[in-house]
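Why does residue order matter? Because the sequence determines the fold. Keep that principle in mind as you read this record.
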Amino acid sequence: MKNVLFITADQWRGSCLSTLGHRVQTPNLDQLAASGTLFKHHYANAVPCGPSRASLHTGMYLQNHRSGTNGTPLDARFTNWALEARASGYDPVLFGYTDTANDPRAFSADDPVLASYEGPLPGIRPIVPMGTFPDAWAAWLNSLGYEIPEPNWRLYTEKTNALEYEAGGTHSAPLKIPQEHHDTYFMVDRVIDFIDRSSQSFCIHLSLLRPHPPWVAPYPFNELYPPDELGDFVRAANVEEEAAQHPFLAEMLSKRHYRAPHQEDKLLRLKSSYYGLMTEVDTNLGRLFDHLKQAGHWDNTLIIFTSDHGEQIGDHHLLGKLGYFDASYHIPLIIRDPSAEAAGQHGKTVDVFTENIDIMPTLLGWLDIPAPTQCDGQSLLPIIRQGRPSGYWRDAAHWEYDFRDIPNGEAVESRLGLSPHQCTLNVIRTHTHKYVHFTQLPPLFFDLIKDPEELNNLANDPNYQSLVLEYAQKMLSWRMNHDEQTLTHLALTDDGVISRVAPRYASPSD
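Structure:
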């Protein structure tokens, strides 16, 4: 009997694991990595949540699924891992959210499903849906006697004696709700209950909100990381110097919700709470992993832990996930394959570039389900089981960002002198260099050996022009190689339909 536990955190930076030497305490994820495979150079393919999760769940680059912003519908013609698993007899269930904006062509104009982009992924059965309005959590808290604020999303933000607490110390005040009643604890408990009630194999997607804002952690997680020890920001000397790097960056830094607070003490408290929420997630995942072992499921359950994207948390004077910096796209990936084929590779760290588009073919492959031809990604099972790819592998990470602002009109477009279709950027990143291509704005180029902090744009440096051209050509080849190809492997002939499927990645000498 095969089980799947597919876990996503939200907004978790890839470096924030104690097994990688980071200050954040993640002992349970460290143990998962020690008994599985840790992918050190794993990247999201898009930001923010909706576009990134569209790539994660469909195995497709944004250039193909085209769900480019939160709220941009995901075309109903595309399949996903849940639909494929369900067609093969599994029952994929959801605890949390997938931020899937449904295709409006499949619904009447007044259908309430079109009033939110927080819909469930087609093919998945929601057990405990959670989103901006945490109704299930709120109902449970109400049953315990808590007074529920209006709107109920304020449950995420209400602190205990905030003014007195923060006036007398450096840490942020804790959430009013204790840790054993917090949303992360609640969600993990619901998964444990579901596993205990399951009479057959399970296929669970646990999508946790944390460490996504609001950055208000319950006690004692709010006090784990002294703010005055967290001032290691990657940034220019001031906002004005940072903004001078590029017109796009200047535009983002002009937005209040993207710009980090000017008050250093406030920013440090936010960072402390962000780290605290990570350790809270790790603590609760430890409870879940222990339960799998006690219930006899540990050795027949594929466990995947990753995130939808990263977080700037003050780097480059920014908050949130946006743009082209590594902090927004580099994310964790740990996979524990319990099969005998993988046993000899447990505890290994992988250095090749992997991307969220690889998750769908990996999950399906473990269930012995063929990956559909729409997938731009490749299964990671050969790496997990043999310690190396089965053939030529990508030599760079790739991501995209669509920064048009559909709900708020043309403000961004007009200030940058762009049309909505021109509000896009593409990134190709190797171990040594990084190229950022805008549809209409000037490019950027970084030497990551000399400038790992991405502070010095070399796109116009005469000494780097040959490299800039080389990387622009690499990007063009990558996009051409990943044009939508659902039917391009087929031909109608006198003998009927002939199929010839070739791998996406081929050796340059092939």
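The chain has one domain: 3-389.
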